[in-house]
Structure formats: structure tokens, C-alpha cells
Amino acid sequence: MPGTVLLIAASPAGKGCLVDAASVLPVLAAVAPSVLSGTDTANVVELADPLQPQAVLTRLRAAATAPGPLTVFLTGQLQLDRRQRRPHLALARTTPATVRYTGFPWHWIREELRLRAPGSTTLLVDLHTDAETWQQLAAQPLAGGPGVALYGRVAPPPPRRAVAVPTYMKSLATILRSGHRPPLPQLHQQALTRSYGEDPDSAHRDLVLAVEPGYRAGAPMPMPMPMTMPTPMPATAHGYAAAPAPVPVPAPAPTPVTAPGSAPVSAPVDPHAEITAAVQSGRHAEAAVLAERWERTALRTYGPGADEVVHWMEVRADLAMFAGDAELSCRIWLAVADARLTAGQPADAAGVEAAVDRAHHQWGRIGDSTRARELGLALAGLRGRVPGRRQGALDDIRRNLSRLQTQT
Q: Is there a contact between 207 and 154 (Cβ–Cβ < 8 Å)?
């Protein structure tokens, strides 16, 4: 099966640049696609100094939903947003004051990759940070997700007025140019050794990442993205064109849960594979019934508002989208947002914002004017509490509600 390779090199323009990220692309581009991917054939997508977070999200989402192995080569710099203190990949227009809106959140990477089959994804990174981000990452290392192999290094800020060189990624690319792709742990070690030769101080300074895919004992694995999943179109029925942000879905608890209507079993049950198979074969109603049963089980086991319950609500919302039922998907996403808020999550929490963004996106696809008006009123009330990152989102709802009123 062909593989997919995503090459991303991103850093701010001007004096905020800490690393010459784009300098690595010519070296990577000289490597045969099959060697980059480790497969017989591969499709390669390159992003050089992207301007908009949504552009990166679109390419990452397309790569994440492609069949076959996925390898992401990511070079750039990380900065914290001042509000939530989450690491973001700084893009061309990013400044310390605008990271939240112009950077690409690291947790978006995790959330897009979590939908892939375990063991099919490799993330190779060469990242530099400012002093503040470096201190936080030293205590809270980056993670690529439970099913993702993550290799690379994170470097502290370079000397004042200096721009660092991505020596790890260049070393990686130079090794691969030979036409031979050793196993990942060996490739990683060879790249480190080579980069240390060019920058000896980095051996005592950098944070080295070497994480193989793994899951907690007894924890169900994430549901892989169905290959037939419809891609959101750039225009919607009610004019809200922006793609929704990824939805953070908590990992189900490691405690084994007895399948509804069956006797207890000693081995952990993984319902996600059965649901995925149903979706891939077009049995959307069956997939929805299975998810509803597991949601009820989680509700009985953990109680209202628990992460496990919200997880299955989010699965049902995605299943409704896959089935083309925008109205049901919108309703469930509204309920997810309400459940998160009721559980005490702040209005600017990533999970809350993502749920409202998804509800807004699905609302724009509802063809029935009466149903759209009904849900639009609920969505407008929620948008008043959760404005999200997209400017004018509430105005968009009000404008389209006014238009819908004239259709009666």
C-alpha cells in the first residue's frame, strides 16, 4: 500500500525567527519518496513557511485520512500562547502576542493523528523553542499520541540574534539520501550522532524524543478514521466556511467495561474496531447503535459528564457526520459542549471550543430551513458563551438566522 509523507517547515518571518526551518526542505526533497516513507511508493506533500493554521490543518487532516503508513517530517519552533500556555508551532505570521491565533496548536497534531490505526504513523521532529517554552517542555515533554512513533529533538533558544540550524533533520535527510532507510530507532540514533558531530554542545543540551507506539494495558485503541469519510467542503449552506478545529477525545479508562448485554469477560473489549468496520462497509445505522450502547454503559458505570461518556457522545457525533446527518451531528456536538461546560470546563477550553466549532460547521450543512432555525437559536446562545477563535462567528449565525427567517 502506498505511503504518505508530509514535510512541514515553519518559522516566523523577521526577528522572531529562531531556526532556519525551510533550509532542510531541499535536502529532504532530494530523498526518494519511497525512502522517506519506507514503502514501495509514496505521495509527498510539502509545506514551506505556511501562513495560516487552517492551511496546515487541511494538509495534516488529508494526510491523516489517507490509507497506508504516514510519516511526518516537522521542522520549526514552538511557542506558548499567553492565555492557555499551550505549545504552538509558530508560523510565518506568528508573534509572541498572536500565537493563539496565528500559530498551529500542538494538540491539533495529536488529535488528527489519534484517529489513525495504531502503529501506522511516524512523527520525526526538529524543534527549537524560546526560553519560556523550553522551561515548560522540560517538565511536560511533547507527546504524539498513543499510536504514534515520535522521534527527534527539542532544542533551547539559540544565542541572541542568532538563527539556529536544524542539524538533526538535515542529518536525518542526509542519511536517507543514501537510499537506505534503517529501522526508526537506528535511524534516529544515527541522525543524533551525526548532528552532535556538527554541534557538540547539543548532546548535553537538547531534549531527545524517542517514543514508540504503546497503549495502557486494557485500554481500547482509538477508532481509525474511515477511509470513506467525507471531506468538508469550503462552502456551506449557511455561509460558515471555516473548517472545524480538531476535537480532543479523552482516552477511555483502562478499567475493562462489560459489553452491553453480555457476560463479563477477562480480556479488554475494543468496540472501536467493530464500529469502524461497520462505517467502512456503509452500515452507519449499526455503527450508531453500537456507539449508543457503549455510551449508555459508560453512563451507568461512570455517571453523567464523565470523560468516558463524553467520548462516546463525540463518537456518535462523528458517526452522524459520516452518515451525512448534519442535523443529528450538530445536535450531539451542542450536547457535548453543554456537557463539558456543565462539568466545569472553561469556555475557552480546547474541547469546549472544538465542540462548538463542530456544531457550527454541521449547522451550516443542514438543508431543512425549519430545523436550521431551531438549532441556530441554540447555537447562537452557545456562541455567546463560547465565541471561539474565529472572529465574527456569532455574527455569522445571526446573519444566517435572519436570512432563514425571510424564507418562511
A: yes
